[in-house]
Design a protein that fits this description.
It contains 24 helices and twelve strands. The chain is of the alpha/beta class and about 750 residues long. The strands form two sheets. Strands 1, 2, 4, 6, 7, 8, 9, 10, 11 and 12 form a ten-stranded mixed β-sheet that branches. Helix 2 packs across helix 10. It starts with 5 loop residues before the first helix and ends in an 8-residue tail after the last helix.
Length: about 750
């Protein structure tokens, strides 16, 4: 029969969690900038002048005091940053870069080889479909095909957006070089003025148009000249040849600067790669910013799109141009304007060294990030195998068994500390050491042992849950503090994100979310152990609700984690944790209601953020929802999730394994997991903790696009900590047996007859 107080207890539990949900709603409402109607500025004539100088292939390694004096001077006098140029492919070609500038969104030239842009149409051709170019101007060849292709990609890039904005405001465009035509062309593929190179621009044209685009292709052309070998591989370009090309490019930049009138904002961008290997490129801004007379001060560039000092993106270049010109930014342009952030006291050499280092770090982590998961998985399987042998063997000497158990527990704690250690390595510049990969491994192991030692030696060391709770709490707090600051620990780390891949630059990436969510759930469950054991159910729910509310806020707020799918996964997971920990029935109806609460929170975040001055991807989703375009976003994300699951037979087998794991965790004795059952007897919150950690990993996998990696990250924390707790339970049993043995030996039945 159901206990008489069960219904009342259920109402209290549900009321508590609903109250937490209401508190979260209020928190989300006040945490973002106050909602306001985003009034578009009138389409007046452009208020400034911008010159975009695109130098395909330019890296910070090319910028030197003696070799490129003009770029060196611009770097010192203006703001500089590392430029992430990822478009729709792993490597970015010149056409991809210029089309991305045109659209303010990742764009491409489909089915094209990675070569320089085609020569524009400068004279009317009989029977040509593109029509006649303007007098003194040019047309981009194949423009309609390019537009149609990009409109059908998952990014729905609207090429011609930048040119349309300028021409719609009554301004004109000057393109210098073929690539600039594709970057500045309007929706019909036209630019008003065209010149093939800087030295052929009439003096009057430099001041005629508000928007100037200049292509300087010397560096990229050096690779085309070198060609490919018989197997199609790029013939290496020597350092001397590259330096000559950089010097020639610098001279052309000097020609451009000499022709531009005073007050022109100069934006330099190394907007493509030079081969199949992607890199971080150059970004420099000098002149007015378009914000009330402000100019780009000496320092580092940043933007709201990255929230990282000294890091900006290629799509930001379009937003920056529109801001300088005083034109409204269409919603199709997803970037944010460049601005100066810090570094005002840095020397030119110091700035260049730091920006070179950004590329070195990104390259170093990219080389080892893929293999890391195989190493981590193999190491943990080895740990579990050794632990299984050690725990099953019957040691004749109790002292030997005690040492084996103690060693196994410490190694398990080290394994549980590895995930957070991968983020802590971001504080050490391991990539600059002579042997980066061994240095990275040593750094991860060093931080893992340090965190495990702190958990092992703390005042909680003798308890069943204390050391594991310490590691889970350190993991959750480290990640929370990082996203509440600047997310530097996630940039270029093993479980974080990479500026070259450019999936995310701030907040929680998919892997970090999974780790944070699992750590927060384990922390909440094990903090609630004492009130649960004492029979204080309301106190246990309060602990879980407090940790859950804080975790959801950290994960979901745009200013911090800015994670869409994470809120959907965490709200029902914490709710189920509260129900299970207090012995309440978990029904499909209750789980469904909490899933709806998670969806409501996400939509509220999206709505409030959409009303802010600089909405993130969360706010843009609400805008898409209101415009009827949200379904395309959902389909794209769902498709990415399905593709991330990989080979379907493997996925189905994995789903069966997860279902089996649920049964084992819920009823271990039925599956002969006696050690787990003994652990459950000692720890009332262990079963809810493991079930909910598994649940948040499964739901997180389904609502994100990183596949089973999300689930693997949750396991990489929860499984070693489970093993450590199980070993501690055996240690306590062994200690109890040792205490009872002398009593048995002194009993009458044990005495000689």
């Amino acid at each position: 029969m159901t206990h008489r107080g069960a219904a009342a207890e259920t109402r209290r539990v549900v009321a508590t969690i609903v109250a937490v949900g209401a508190a979260l709603l209020a928190l989300f409402a006040v945490s973002s900038p106050r909602a306001h109607a985003a009034s578009a500025r009138s389409a007046a004539a452009p208020a400034g002048r911008v010159a975009i100088i695109g130098i395909p292939g330019l890296k910070w390694k090319d910028v030197t005091r003696g070799g490129t004096p003009t770029l060196w001077r611009l770097t010192g006098q203006g703001a500089a940053g590392a430029l992430s140029i990822r478009t729709t492919r792993v490597n970015t070609c010149p056409m991809d870069g210029w089309l991305t500038v045109s659209a303010g969104q990742r764009a491409r030239l489909a089915h094209g080889d990675c070569a320089l842009p085609s020569a524009p149409v400068t004279a009317a051709r009989p029977g040509a479909q593109e029509g006649a170019p303007p007098e003194g101007g040019a047309l981009a060849p194949g423009w309609q095909t390019i537009k149609d292709d990009n409109s059908r990609t998952s990014y729905h890039a609207r090429v011609g957006l930048l040119g349309d904005a300028v021409r719609g405001a009554g301004g004109c465009t000057l393109a210098v070089g073929p690539g600039a035509v594709f970057g500045l062309a309007d929706g019909a593929g036209r630019v008003d003025r065209y010149a093939p190179s800087p030295d052929k621009v009439p003096a009057a044209d430099w001041s005629r148009c508000a928007l100037i685009g200049v292509e300087i292709d010397d560096i990229f052309r050096a690779y085309l000249t070198a060609g490919v070998d018989a197997e199609g591989e790029q013939v290496p370009v020597t350092g001397r040849a590259r330096a000559r090309a950089a010097r020639a490019a610098d001279q052309r930049v000097a020609q451009v600067l000499a022709g531009l009138p005073q007050g022109t904002t100069v934006l330099v961008a190394g907007l493509s790669d030079t081969g199949i290997k992607p890199h971080i490129r150059v970004a420099i801004a000098q002149g007015p910013t378009g914000e009330g007379g402000k100019t780009y001060q000496p320092g580092y560039l940043t933007s709201s799109a990255t929230r990282q000092t000294a890091l900006v993106t290629l799509t930001d270049l379009t937003a920056t141009t529109l801001q300088v010109l005083g034109l409204p930014q269409p919603k199709e342009a997803v970037g944010s304007a460049w601005r100066t952030s810090g570094g005002g006291d840095a020397t030119t050499m110091g700035k260049v060294d730091r920006l070179r280092d950004e590329d070195v770090a990104a390259q170093a982590i990219r080389h080892v990030q893929g293999g890391f998961w195989w190493v981590l998985g193999g190491a943990q399987l080895l740990l579990y195998g050794i632990a299984g042998v050690a725990l099953r063997r019957r040691w004749n000497v109790p002292a030997s068994r005690a040492r084996i158990l103690s060693t196994t527990r410490f190694i398990a704690l080290v394994g549980g500390a590895v995930p957070v250690a991968t983020f802590l390595t971001g504080m050490v510049p391991w990539w600059n050491l002579p042997y980066p990969t061994p240095a990275l491994i040593a750094t991860v192991l060093g931080f893992s042992v340090l965190v495990a030692a702190l958990a092992w030696a703390g005042p909680w060391r003798g308890s069943l849950l204390g050391p594991g709770l310490a590691i889970a709490a350190v993991t959750a707090l480290t990640l929370a503090a990082d996203v509440m600051a600047d997310s530097r620990l996630q940039l270029n780390t093993l479980m974080g994100y990479n500026a070259i891949i450019a999936g995310r630059f701030y907040g929680f990436g998919n892997q970090a979310f999974s780790l944070f969510a699992a750590a927060a759930i384990l922390t909440a469950a094990w903090l609630a152990e004492r009130p649960v054991q004492a029979g204080r159910r309301v106190g246990a729910v309060a602990v879980i609700a407090a940790v859950g509310a804080a975790a959801v806020a950290v994960d979901g707020l745009p200013a911090w984690g800015s994670d869409f799918g994470g809120v959907i996964a965490m709200v029902p997971a914490f709710a189920v944790l509260g129900l299970m920990a207090t012995g309440q029935r978990v029904s499909a109806l209750r789980v469904g209601l909490f899933c709806l609460l998670g969806a409501a929170l996400v939509l509220l975040i999206s709505y409030v953020n959409s009303r802010s001055a600089n909405p993130t991807h969360l706010g843009r989703f609400w805008q898409d929802l209101m415009n009827g375009d949200a379904w395309d976003v959902v389909v794209r994300k769902f498709g990415a999730m399905l593709r991330s699951l990989g080979y379907w037979p493997f996925t189905l087998a994995l789903a069966a394994a997860i279902a089996f794991l649920y049964f084992v965790l819920i009823r271990p004795l039925k599956w002969r997991a006696s050690l787990l059952e003994r652990l459950y007897e000692r720890c009332a919150t262990m079963r809810p903790a493991l079930v909910c950690a598994l649940t948040v990993g499964v739901v997180g996998t389904l609502v994100n696009d990183s596949g089973v990696v999300i689930l693997s990250v949750a396991f990489s924390l929860a499984t070693p900590l489970l093993l450590a707790a199980a070993v501690r339970a055996l240690e306590l049993d062994l200690a109890a047996e040792g205490t009872a043995a002398p009593q048995r030996s002194g009993s009458p039945s044990a005495s000689p007859g």
